[in-house]
Amino acid sequence: MLKLELPAKYEALRQRVRAFVDELLIPIENASTAGTDLKPEIRARLEDEAKKRDLWMLHVPPEFGGQAGDMFSKIVIWQELGRSIAIPPRRWAVFGPDPGPILYQLAEHQREKYLWPVLRGEKKVAFAQTEPGAGADPAGMSTTAVRDGDHYVINGRKRFIGFGDEADFIQVVALTDPAKRARGGISSFLVDTDTPGFRVVRQLETMMIDRPVELEFVNVRVPAENLIGREGDGFRLAQSWITEGRLARHGARGAGVIERCLELGVAYANERTTFGSKLADRQSIQFMLVDMYQHLYQLRLMLYDTARRFDAGEDIRTESYLCKYFGDESAFHAADRCMQIHGAIGLTTDYPIETFWKQARSFVITEGPTEVMKMVVARKVFEDFTKTA
Length: 389
Known about the structure:
This protein has helices spanning 8-25, 40-52, 71-81, 108-119, 234-271, 283-311, 317-342, 353-363, 370-385, and strands at 33-34, 37-38, 125-128, 144-148, 151-161, 169-175, 186-192, 198-203, 213-223, 227-228, 273-274, 277-278. It is an alpha+beta fold. It folds into 3 domains: 8-98, Orthogonal Bundle (Butyryl-Coa Dehydrogenase, subunit A, domain 1), CATH 1.10.540; 125-228, Butyryl-CoA Dehydrogenase, subunit A, domain 2 (Beta Barrel); 236-384, Butyryl-CoA Dehydrogenase, subunit A, domain 3 (Up-down Bundle), CATH 1.20.140. It has a 4-stranded mixed sheet. Strands 4-5-9-8 form a 4-stranded antiparallel sheet, with no helix packed on it. A two-stranded antiparallel sheet has the order 1-2.
């Protein structure tokens, strides 16, 4: 297998998470979920095992009581978790709470009410940016937050919000200065879901296990002290959430999908005989697997380099776009080719392939479709390669 040397602490983490996946997740892939979430008894057992195996609070920085929190650790964790469909892809908190980067930036007076209860497992949080008319282009959002004395009044709708129907509070991104928009006119707020004027409009049925919701805000009055950071910080804060997601949930998860598809594809090619020969002897099958192998190597190199630079404090926005779209597209390609190798049996739930395929197809769109990622990267390409006199 392609081997990229990791620093000792990350290799030890990888091996612990990999054992967790191989021993506990893969064996229960066909019986782990009920509806959109893990069965309660399975979640309890997995969380207990995580604590026993010293895998608890893996996503939380040490200063907040956790073990890790740096991006390189998250890349290692999500790559290994991506190899299994046992846990729904957007509900991977079996290693303890994962509040996301925004809550760690809260002011001290906000942490007591919002961050610490999440870390103790007492509250759930959601993030709301996408709107019916503003998905890949968040600068086009229409949800507004208007200052009124010591409150802000929020009006608008958010759509495709994960866990919005379960959350105790929501991180809401809204316009505070429509003239400035993404250039200092977007702010973020902590909105309790029991606030008058807030409601869950509907749950959206999708081709995946996910069931995101649409939210409505009608004259929702939020205390000014619930502003996160300063007015105009919202776009930057939202990008910190999304950048982390692009690297971990998309790029690293995609690497895990590719690796599992290679495992499944090679095993089936060695086992299956047609017209007197094993599939493994057919060049058409070999080439499919080689493409997956190459993509896995490329993606890992991209992820490790980007994570290293992120943790060093460098600006990795362009690299995060590349990791996101290459990871998602390569994972979908791997799932599709793995399905082709397996033929009709790959369409069944006997194997995890059809679930990988559906999940991978959805990730190509969410948190920035491929076309938008390439459009943004194109600006960097022209900036870097346009010759000046």
